Amino acid sequence: MLQTKIRYITVEQMREVDRLMIEEYKIELQQMMENAGRNLARLAVRKFLHDLQTYREVIVLAGPGGNGGGAMVAARHLFNWGFPVSVYLSHQHEKYSGVPGYQMKILKNMGLHIGESDEQISSTSTALIIDGIIGYSLVETPRHGAANRIIWANSSNIPILSLDVPSGIDSTTGEIFDPAIQAMVTMTLALPKTGFQKPGIQKYTGELFVADISVPFGVYKRLGIFREELPDFSKDEIVKLPPLT
Fold this sequence. Notes:
Blueprint: H1 11-23, H2 29-49, E1 57-62, H3 66-80, E2 85-89, H4 98-110, E3 113-115, E4 126-132, H5 144-155, E5 160-163, E6 185-189, H6 202-205, E7 207-211, H7 217-222, E8 238-240
Parallel strand pairs: 1-2, 1-4, 2-3, 4-5, 5-6, 6-7
Antiparallel strand pairs: 7-8
Helix pairs in contact: 2-3, 3-4
């Protein structure tokens, strides 16, 4: 495929992508979440865990939305691959319903530790933090448990891998709320978001990758996006984005 320049999209466009996948193509949120979480786990191993002589703990910070659900899928895969994994919630337990709640039940059945939103985190042997607190749906400054988890992660001196967008960043504008995750690596989904083009945002996103969640080309076509503007997932489901010039 002849590659031109990868398209960056807004939150509204991403919401339309999700809507079309679910309503017209019958690709359910759970399927998208599985693709996102599996790729997040693969990237975690590739970038942070592949050369560890002994398996060290991965801490997953999970919000109650789709972002948290995807992070919990990643937790399941990493646990199955032999890594010690603990999940810590950013909101009260009862906030986790629908597909994210379903993912949490799976982890509980597998015996993973699920820490409540006010539980203190022990990170003495932690190799990686996965940020799944808030995704592209951010509308205001993170508060309460979400803010506390972000502040803890930034102060931990442990590498952070963010799913889709670092928690506390507006995906469309690139506005940085206080607090906001400062990730070493961000794996965004389907297409990169326009907020990643803001000057200086790399301090928060770190190295940028985009992952395939099996969006049909017809969805992109409806949005006026050409095939040449899409990442080439034919060789790898996770593609590194070139630095913006």
